[in-house]
Amino acid sequence: MKEALPLFPEQASTIAPQVDHLLYFLLAVTTFFTLLIFCAIFYFAVRYRRRSEQELPPLVHGSLTLELTWTIIPAALVMIMFVWGAWLFIKMRRPPTDALNIYVVGKQWMWKLQHMEGQREINELHIPVGKPVKLIMTSEDVIHSFFIPAFRTKQDVLPGRYTEEWFQPDKPGSYHLFCAEYCGTKHSGMIGWIHVMEPADYQAWLSGGRAMGSLAENGEKLFQQLACSNCHHLNDQGRCPNLVGLYGQPVKLTDGRTVKADEAYIRESILNPAAKVVYGFQPIMPTFQGLVTEEQVLQLIEYIKSLGQRPGGAPVGAGVRETSIESSRPVKR
Ligand code: CUA
User: Fold this and answer.
1) Which atom of ligand 1 is nearest the CA belonging to 183?
2) In what helix (H) or strand (E) does residue 139 lie, and over which residues does it extend?
3) Cα–Cα distances in Å, from 16 out to 27, 268, 292?
4) Buried b / exposed e across 218-244, counting CB within 10 Å, b at 16+?
5) 102: Cβ below 6 Å to ligand 1?
């Protein structure tokens, strides 16, 4: 049942009631002090009004008790707000490791969403109830913001960067999705729906459109088409770094720095290969800027992620034997 003019949006995620409790607390504190201050103004105006032209008010000296009271109580209150808010913020910034990953690409003026299994959606997202969902988001043009009021989550979506947002829906239903960052003429039309489904319905929905192949499979095709495989052999014999087990590992660079091979690093290495050159390699890779879309970059990233783990988590650049590579490759050839 939707009210005509609801004061608060529906609560449909695990975090929603917690965000609301903090908001109620802030509302209660501000209402209390607003009323207290207004009442005090009126009371003092009447109580201490000047009663005659000759009247001189008595000299008032400070009161230590009063000073301490109106310092300590507000200080304690704002500290409660700070600690409570920071605790909630940290919680909302840390997706559980078992979260369902979904890629989001924003562009003027639509949301493109891709499931790991290959399903693509526009302005709609189907997810199962009761499972944490992590969105990995980027933009093709300007800044957008992915806002689901019923989940109480909002995160800016930036060009050239990956941002994350996570939530755990706990109530099946359809919820509004908005772009919450002014992004041009049709910003107000950059809206959609989040469909939270029962797990069985979700499985049925998932198996509905598998024809296009998973992200990693499409990434592998692209890897061949773009001839990445000519230099990046899936062993240490190629002219370019071995990508097996790269994801999540520290990478040593020619300039002496060590960076983590996360989504942002892989994306940058595709679009601007000279930015971070792996130690022991030449900067011979051409840029793929303009040759691949943000969605294709995501497919390549998923393919690289699917290349498995290096045994023992050996850093990139260290030798890996051929046999262990084959056994750690879940992708069919
Ligand atoms: Cu996209 Cu506003």
Assistant:
1) 2
2) strand 133-139
3) 16, 35, 38
4) bbbebbeeeebeeebbbeeeeebbbbb
5) no
What is the C-alpha end-to-end distance of the chain, expressed in Å? Answer: 51
CB of 144 shorter than 6 A to ligand 1: yes
User: Which residues does 65 contact at the CB level (< 8 Å), separation at least 6?
Assistant: none
CA-180 nearest atom, ligand 1:
2
Q: Which residues of the chain have pLDDT under 50?
A: 1, 312-333
CA angle (322 as vertex; 319, 328 as ends), nearest 5: 100
- 144 CA: nearest ligand 1 atom: 1
Mind listing the pLDDT tens digit for each residue in 138-181?
998 999 999 999 999 999 999 988 999 999 999 999 999 999 99
For residues 314 and 238, what is the distance between their CA atoms, to the nearest angstrom? 18
Q: What radius of gyration, in Å, describes the C-alpha atoms of the chain?
A: 28
Measured from the CB, is residue 190 less than 6 Å from ligand 1?
Answer: yes
CA-proximal residue: ligand 1, atom 1 (nearest): 144
- Amino acid at site 142: V
Question: What CA–CA distance (Å, rounded) separates 80 from 62?
Answer: 28
**Alpha carbon distances (Å) from 301 to 93, 207, 217, 247, 289:** 22, 23, 11, 9, 15
Quick one: pLDDT at residue 211?
59
CB 124 within 8 A of CB 108: no
- Residue 117 burial (CB count, 10 A): 15
Q: Which atom of ligand 1 is nearest to the CA of 142?
A: 1
pTM of this prediction? Answer: 0.70
Least Cα distance to 103 among 127, 120, 81, 80 occurs for 120
CA 214/CA 240 separation, integer angstroms? 26
Q: Give CB contacts under 8 A, 24+ apart, made by 222-225.
A: 222/292, 222/296, 222/299, 222/300, 222/303, 223/300, 223/303
Cβ-proximal residues to 252 (8 Å cutoff; 6+ apart), any chain: 258, 278, 279, 315, 316, 317
115 Cα: distance to centroid of ligand 1 (angstroms)? 22
